[in-house]
Amino acid sequence: MAKRLIFGHRNPDTDAITSAIAYAHLKRELGEDVEPVALGEPNPETQFVLSHFGVSAPRVIERVAGEVDEVILVDHNERQQSAPDADQVKVVEVIDHHRIANFETADPLYYRAEPVGCTATILNKLYKEKNVSIPRHVAGIMLSAIISDTLLLKSPTCTEEDVKAARELAELAGVKLEEYGLQMLKAGADLSQKTVGELLTLDAKEFQMGNHKVEIAQVNAVDVNDVLAKKAEILQAIEKKIAEKGLDLFFFVVTDILNNGSVGLALGRAAHAVEEAYGVKLEDHQALLKGVVSRKKQIVPVLTEVLSK
Amino acid sequence: MAKRLIFGHRNPDTDAITSAIAYAHLKRELGEDVEPVALGEPNPETQFVLSHFGVSAPRVIERVAGEVDEVILVDHNERQQSAPDADQVKVVEVIDHHRIANFETADPLYYRAEPVGCTATILNKLYKEKNVSIPRHVAGIMLSAIISDTLLLKSPTCTEEDVKAARELAELAGVKLEEYGLQMLKAGADLSQKTVGELLTLDAKEFQMGNHKVEIAQVNAVDVNDVLAKKAEILQAIEKKIAEKGLDLFFFVVTDILNNGSVGLALGRAAHAVEEAYGVKLEDHQALLKGVVSRKKQIVPVLTEVLSK
Q1: What is the distance between the alpha carbons of residues A80 and A98, in angstroms, rounded to a whole number?
Q2: Distance from CA of B70 to the nearest CA of A (A)
Q3: According to its UniProt record, which reaction does this protein catalyse (chains A, B) (predicted)?
C-alpha cells in the first residue's frame, strides 16, 4: 500500500499536530506506511509541548495531491479547514471530535468521531482497541492535546472520558497533570511577542453558517488586557480581512485561561448574531462573554443557529 | 434522558431494519431509552428473517420531529435517504458503512463508519467493546444483514471482518451459514408476485452526483428473465418517475444472485454515464454488467465520478 499522509487542520493547534503524530505512531506499529505532517508551523504552546517531550515537529506541507493518493484527517473534517487540494485525493480515514459539515466522500471510509473534548482521547481508545502500548513521549504529547483543548479539564467540552484519558496519559508520561498543565498553558498564552496579524491567524477557522461566511479566531491569554491594549489596530486588521475574504462576520475571541471566560470582538454585517446569541450588547464591537471558553461547544453551534434562521 | 429513535434508511432493506433492532438492544442493555423504528415496511427478505428468528417488525414511522428531539441513524447518513424531517431533530449518533454525503450537524456527535460490507459487522464490534453478549435472536438477524448486504459473502463489498463476524454470529444464532443464507436470499428474491411499481421502489435510493439527481433501484433475482419479461412496462414506469421527480438518471439494476452479475436499465438525460462508467453500449436502454452486484461499491462511486466531471 502506498504511503498515506496524516494531518490536522490549518492553523494547527496542539491537538491537530500531536494527533497526527500519535495516530501515525499507532499506524506504524500496525505496519502501515504513513507520515504525520502539518498544514502550518507549530504555535508556541505546541513548540513547548514537542520540546518538553523531545518530539520533532512534523514536516509542514501546503498541498497533498502531488505527493500521495490517500490521506487521513485528524481533528477536522470541514473542507475549508483542510488542505486546499484535499478534494483531489481520497480521504480514507477521519478521527475527529467536531461537528460534521462540508465533508463528502465518493466511497465508504473509516470515520471515527466522538463528542469528547479532544482527538487524543479517541486515539487513546484506538491504542487500546488495537492492543498497542503508548510510549512515554507519545503519551506526553497526547496528554498535552487534552490539556490544550479542555483548558486543563475546565472547558465545558471536557467529558469524563477526557478526564480519564488525561489521568492515564499523565501516568504513562510521568508528569504531574496540574503542574505540567499550567506550565504548558502559560507557555502558550504568552502573547507579548505577537503581532496583531499573528493574533488574528494563530488559531483562526472559517465556517459556513446558513448563507454566511464566518471566521472565528481565538487566542488564550493569561491577561486579556495584554491583547486589548492593541484593540484599535486589531479592529482595523479585522476590517481588512472582512473586505479581502468577503466575510459576513469575523469574531475574535480572547479567552482568559485563568478566569474561565472570554472577551469577544465582532465585526461584519452579521455581527448582530453575536448580540443575539449571547444576549449581550456590543460596545465599540466588544462584549464580555462570561463562562465562554469553547469555540466548538459555546460559539459555533449558537452562532450557526442564529445565522441559519 | 428523553427517548431517542433509532432507524435505518427509507425503503429499508434487511441491514437497515435489523441494525436498528440490534443497536437498540445494545443501547437498552446499557440502560439507554431508545426505540428501533423503520421508515417503511420490511421487504419479503426481511420478513423472512424476522419471522425465522421470532423478532417483531419495528413500528413504521414517516416523521420523527413531532415525537423526539434526538435520533440515531443506522446504515445511512445522506439526508435524502433519511426521515424527511430529520433536519428538525438532532442526530446524536450514526453507525454506518456508506460514503458520507449530504450530511451536516451543528454539534459534535458519535459517528462510527467503517468501510465494511454491513452495518451489523460494526455492531458486532460495538457489542464487544461494551462487553454485552448478543442473544441468539439478535445474532440471527445481524447475521442475516451480513448475508443480505454481501450476497452470502460473495459481493466485492465483503471484507474479512464481515466474514469473521458472519461466522461468529452464525455460531451464536445456531444456524448453518451457507444453508440458511441461500434459503434467506431465495426467500427475498422471489419477485413473481411483485408489480412493476414494487420492483422499482423495493430498494431504491436517491443520490446527488455532481449536478445530477440520480435514483438507483436494485432487485435481487434468482432468474433475471422473470423481471425482464416485464421490460416494456418497467421502462414506461421509469419514464414516469423521471418526469415526476425531475431525475437526470434512473438506473434499475437486476442482480443475479446465483451468477454474480446484473442487468441494468438506464433512462434519463444522463443515461450515457452508465455507458461511460462500464464501457458498455445501452441497447434498448439495457446493458449487461458482468460481475457488478454492489450498488455501494460498483455503482455509486463510478457513476459519481463520471457525473462529477
Answers
A1: 14
A2: 15
A3: diphosphate + H2O = 2 phosphate + H(+)
For cell 504552546, the residue is A45
Residue B2 to residues A243, A254, B32, B272, Cα–Cα distance (Å): 45, 36, 9, 49
Which chain A residue's Cα is nearest to B128?
A: A129
CATH code assigned at B204 = 3.10.310.20
Closest CA to A168 of A150, A145, A142: A142
The whole-angstrom distance between B208's CA and the closest CA on chain A is 11
Distance CA A1, CA B126 (A): 28
Residues in chain A: 309
Count: domains in chain B: 2
Distance from CA of B51 to the nearest CA of A (A): 31
- The whole model's pTM is what? 0.83
> CB contact, 8 Å: A150 with chain B?
no
| Nearest one of B303, B277, B118 to A106, comparing CA atoms | B303
Using an 8 Å Cβ cutoff, are A204 and A163 in contact? no
pLDDT in tens, chain B (309 residues): 799 999 999 999 999 999 999 999 999 999 999 999 999 999 999 999 999 999 999 999 999 999 999 999 999 999 999 999 999 999 999 999 999 999 999 899 999 999 999 999 999 999 999 999 999 999 999 999 999 999 999 999 999 999 999 999 999 999 999 999 999 998 888 887 889 999 999 889 999 999 999 999 999 998 899 899 999 999 999 999 999 999 999 999 999 988 889 999 999 999 999 999 999 999 999 999 999 999 988 999 999 999 998
Grid cell in block for residue B27: 443501547
Q: Are residues A112 and A215 in the same domain?
A: no
Please answer yes or no on whether A102 and B97 come within 8 Å at the CB atom: no
Say whether residue B113 is in contact with chain A using an 8 A CB cutoff.
yes
Q: How far apart are CA B144 and CA B173, in angstroms?
A: 10
Contact yes or no for B99 and A107 at CB 8 A: yes
Using only C-alpha atoms, chain A has a radius of gyration, in whole angstroms, of 19
For residue A192 the three cell numbers come to: 507579548
Residue B212 grid coordinates: 445530477
B88–A contact, CB cutoff 8 A: no
The ipTM estimated for the assembled molecules is 0.81
- Check whether residue A235 and residue A152 sit in a common domain: no
Residue A49 CA from chain centroid, whole number? 15
Do residues A233 and A267 make contact, with C-beta atoms less than 8 angstroms apart? no
**Last residue in a domain, options B158, B189, B220:** B189
Q: Does A297 touch chain B (CB under 8 A)?
A: yes
DSSP alpha helix (H) spans, chain A:
14-29, 44-52, 119-129, 136-150, 160-173, 177-188, 196-201, 224-228, 231-245, 272-278, 300-308
Across the beta sheet with A286-290, the strand order is: A204-209, A212-221, A249-256, A261-267, A286-290
CATH for A89: 3.90.1640.10
How far is residue B260 from each of residues A235, B149, B290, measured CA to CA in Å? Answer: 65, 13, 7
The answer to whether A100 contacts B113, with C-beta atoms less than 8 Å apart, is no
